[in-house]
Amino acid sequence: MRSYRLSRSGAGTAGLRMTDDEVPSPGPGEVLVEVRAASLSYRDVMVLRGDYVLPVRDDVVPLAEGVGVVAGAGPGVDRAVLGTRVAAAVFPRWQDGPFTPAVADQLGGSWDGVLTEYRVLPADAVVEVPASLTDAEAATLPCAGVTAWNALTGGRPVRPGETVLTLGTGGVSLWAVQLAAVMGARVIATTGDPAKSDLLRGLGAAAVVDRRTADWPSAVRDLTGGRGADHVVEVAGTLPDSVAATAFGGEVGVVGFVGDRAALDPYAVFRGGVTLRPVAVGSRAQLVELVRAVEACRLRPVVDRCFPFEAAPEAFAHYLGGKAIGKVVITVAPGPVATAEGR
Q: Which end of the chain is more exposed for a tag (fewer CB within 10 A), N or C?
């Protein structure tokens, strides 16, 4: 089988190489998954740069989220799972409950990831994905989808009628717009490109704010009668502005820092009664919840572009270019795909 490996964290795309490996055999409690598609997330950029917050072993198979078909089952696994299309939790040992160091092993980090043709995984780490999604779409569930779900439900869950603020048009943000909308929230989205406003409104945003405006938090407050957003999905490294746009007693789900890591005045948090909650993707239980919601509401993620397995370095380059709208996916085995243009 073919796999990609990264020589070491921090090596960048120059550290990627394709290898020929033996197809592994599943052991007790394990399944062999024939990978169909793998998706890039911002965490993979951090792994390439060498600033990911969790350990990454040398020569790791990269990418944490993907989808495939169960092609084999080890002892103790019900063989009825054969042929099932599944996605694996990014943290395979994190079944439920709070995130702790004891369950911090992650795909594409301390464990090999899914940029490979076959992957052995714990049977209790995989979840069947909805038939309504293509392989490319289903590959966006375990990291981007679960992160958005966790940001909206893992702390104080979003309630109907509340306001949710999302930032930009990355994979997590676009998932958050759709999920918050079907939860009955009023979604305000920000973007630095007004041409993307129609996309955001089409996914469920009630209003779109131009983030190039110097004081965009005031625009958010104007749209909420001066109150601010009840929930903010913070992905952009604009934490002081996000806090300024949050209602008293509101919650900011801190997903990541795509931009600069701006300093935050603790007084602003105290004065606003704002809860800051770090979001570390999510558990397998949250992946199960997300799958149920996606299936019930017939949601479909935005896929920017699909690359063939042989062009994985080009997929990384496209993602790193910062122009992608939605998810960048690498197709590993033949299967139906969808793109933003074809939606």
A: C
